[in-house]
Design goal:
280 residues, binds the ligand N[C@@H](CCC(=O)N[C@@H](CSC=O)C(=O)NCC(=O)O)C(=O)O, EC 3.1.2.12, alpha/beta
Length: 280
Amino acid sequence: MLDNLSATKVSGGWHKQYSHTSTSTHCPMRFAIFLPPGASQTNKVPVLYWLSGLTCTDENFMQKAGAFKMAAELGIAIVAPDTSPRGDTVPDEDSYDFGQGAGFYVNATQAPYNTHYNMYEYVVNELPALIDQHFPVTDKKAISGHSMGGHGALMIALRNPQNYTSTSAFSPIVNPINCPWGQKAFSHYLGSDKSTWTQYDTCELMDQANATDHLPMRIDQGEADNFLVEQLKTENLFKKVNEQGYPAEINMHAGYDHSYFFISSFIDEHLLFHQSYLQA
Ligand SMILES: N[C@@H](CCC(=O)N[C@@H](CSC=O)C(=O)NCC(=O)O)C(=O)O
């Protein structure tokens, strides 16, 4: 059952927030959806799933990205889930890069995280089924995200190419098994056996991708991003894309940092990129 928390008209469409009890994360989960003008059961629209980064909820992208005007024009719905399970019964840690707000889009295997921290299952299966059931959407889906959410979007698209028409990311963590954010999260959620980590690593997954499963991919990265060298490791993705001949466009931008100022500067280009595949 969906509980409607808010409904706000914007750019001729509607921004709505919902809560529901999740079978994947065993707690109430919140998500937001933008429905463009005219979306109805007789005029279904494609969906862009947006995965946010560390510390975010369903609200950061919706309030800061400035995506509604273009999404309304193109007739694309946008769905933004929360970034982790939440609540008093959900294990947490007093840090911004692990625990609540930092689910890393994996299915945790280690106690005490494995009851609730199943964001991979939630984003890949449960949420799209819920959206398909309750909203006027077609079966065309794209997936995008920022930072930890960029990792989630690319990784999920690489593992489930049949589910999506295209994928994109802003400032993604592309090689989490080799950066401090990823190593901290994966060691707690997945345990010390690093062979279980590679299934959630974009660079590793690129090595395994069949050419027939390649998806159109776009990445935008700010050159003044404080996290670029230590955490995001975009250069490792450049190498993989070249080695594998993966159809990814990686755009570096002088002067831009890691913030939503950067995302809002290029979100229209990402929506237009996805539009060309969603409407094909
Ligand atoms: N130092 C910050 C780190 C948090 C941060 O920068 N979060 C980013 C995502 S980082 C990678 O996933 C973000 O999107 N923040 C929300 C926003 O609205 O800008 C801290 O301590 O908070």
